[in-house]
Amino acid sequence: MSKGGLDSWEEIRSSALAMVQEAISFEAPTEVKKKVVEELKRVISPERVREEPYIRAMYRGGGYGVPGRLLAVKAPDIVIYPNSVDEVKQTLCIASKYRIPVVPVGQHTIASASIQGGIVLDMTTMKRILKIDRKHNYVVVEPGVTIAELQEALGSDYIVAKGSYPSTHPVLSSLACFGAQHSLANRMWDQVIGLEVVMPDGSIIYTGTLLYGDVEHWSEVQLTYADIRKLFTPTYGTMGVITKAAIRIWPKLEKVAFHIFGFKDFSSAFGWTHAASKSPMVDQAMVWGWVTVGMFANAVRFHGLDWFEARANCDQDNQPKQILPYPYYAFVQVRGYADEVDGNFKVVQRLAEDYNGVYLSEDELMRWPTLGALYILLLTGYGMRKADEILSSMGEKMLPELKKLLTGISISGLEYPTVSYQFVGGVDEIVKMYEGVKEKCKELGWVNWSFYTRMFHYGQTPWIRLFPFIDASSIEDLRRDAALMQALLKWVLDNYKVSIFRMAFYSNDPKNPAEVYERVKPVRRLLRAVQSEFDPANVLNPLARKYTLS
Amino acid sequence: MRENIESFFKEPGKALLDYLRPGCRIIISADEHHYTLVVGESGEVRIEEGRKEGDIEIVGETAVLRDLFSSKSLEEFSDKMRFYIKLDKKPRLKILMERNVENVRKFMRNYYIPLYKLYILR
């Protein structure tokens, strides 16, 4: 593929749309569907094989992005609620026999549902916690177990990594399907240590700790036999259907702290997060612009019309001074034994001196409603601190409106942008890109966009997430803004050595994509060979019927 | 200038008019000159010379505002607006209403969408 080939954004977009159109135009003949339902009901109890329109409609997918929403997507024909590994196996065997596409669903969001009809396997009904091993710090769960359920079973002495996912989200889908992108990723990068997977031909694969039944000493197991866990995480369920997983857990340590610093420019704030995350004490380090802070921390609730005025007259480098004291904020999330956390506090303060960062103490944060709300948001969210605990430790210095946030009113922002793009790239490149994006967004007509960056370990490729506000009031506005966002996306990819999050292979050498494409080919061949072996009817990869990966 | 504003808001075919509700009062300030846009009970738009009572104010350079309001369509307006945003000449928004919850609702109801369409709130 030439550079020209990748350059033609419209071409890529229209071929992707064509593939989706192809997928959604799939239609199983009525008599086949009837037979499939009959066979399924014979092996799975009939009340768990559903085809009523109101049930099917709940699984109609489309994704989070504007293009996905604009696509006409198709609801599944049949929804299965399996109770056991055997029922998953039976479903896949019947689907393979009749070549019906299957989408395993681990959570109820539009991103995970069916776009091409066929069968949806709702895995949320398999929700047993099979084992809790506190001594070796792991659990064995079925895919439907939610973060809240596991947390309740473990009690408050343990942390279930959840990142920004809601507690109603299955614990496995955030780890297996999306990668370990949670707020403790620095020390819990490799979370899933064992898997049981049902393949479309009915065979069951065990890997990691589950290969030998259930082995407690999981760090050794990973060295003793080919470890193929990564074949299934994260593949969005296209290689097989996960029915059981061993997952690491983490005992809650004595102290969690968020040290927030104010900065005058993006480059310093970002450089500080990079330096600070050299310490393994740091779970994550982030930079938030003032618009992001205001948006997520309820500035509109505290400042009402002043906030709208600030948004309309927005300047990324000059915050509205009556609302926030600095244009950029960076923080580290630190967890450990109390004296370790206190020691790390000294370290990040020393590093901040090199980057002209100003430490914002708890007292200082509480003087600014929006910053106070940010701090509370971090403590209750990533910090998992309870509201009454926070009130008793610092309630006295809290403004009344901040106290309200902890006594019943939802903490989440009132405004929320509908679309975002995440880019990954080197540290220096992201600084360059940020400065460029400021100018480009102006050209496109967005001045009050927001962003955050996130970094887990030193040397890890950081990411930046951009949120242009899209408050479209009509479909024409939405289309126009979608086109502008595509223009921004293309401009960023063309001008900087960054790539869209989770599509990193495009970016290793963006000036020479053909070479990267060639290198990826054998990997695709290998994956395709595994798929062909276990999924000859392509039920988990319906697009592969026409569009082969090799 | 007054004619520019008048024809921009009165010209049929601009979806913007559909969103300006009766009772809306917008002051447009071009350097030293002020104009007050009033939407009457039956939806008719009236432009009055001078600074009258208003809920919000759009403040900009005369040349910029004249150019913007001489646009024949919202698309033309937004294209020009992007040009001025890039030059750091985007007209500023002042909200003149008293700061209370009731007025936040009023702002959302009466002005949010027109200001979005005019690229002021982006």
How do the helices and strands line up, and which of them pair or pack?
The complex is a heterodimer of chains A (550) and B (122).
Chain A: H1 3-7, H2 9-24, H3 30-43, E1 49-50, H4 53-56, H5 66-70, E2 78-80, H6 85-98, E3 102-105, E4 119-122, E5 129-133, E6 138-141, H7 147-154, E7 158-159, H8 171-177, E8 192-198, E9 204-208, H9 218-221, E10 241-248, E11 250-251, E12 255-263, H10 266-276, E13 282-289, H11 290-296, H12 299-312, E14 328-336, H13 338-354, E15 358-360, H14 362-367, H15 369-380, H16 387-394, H17 400-405, E16 421-425, H18 427-444, E17 450-455, E18 463-467, H19 475-495, E19 498-500, H20 513-534
Helix pairs in contact in A: 3-6, 10-18, 11-12, 18-19
Chain B: H1 2-10, H2 16-19, E1 25-30, E2 33-39, E3 45-49, E4 56-60, H3 62-69, H4 74-86, E5 92-95, H5 101-110, H6 112-117
Parallel strand pairs in B: 1-4
Antiparallel strand pairs in B: 1-2, 2-3, 4-5
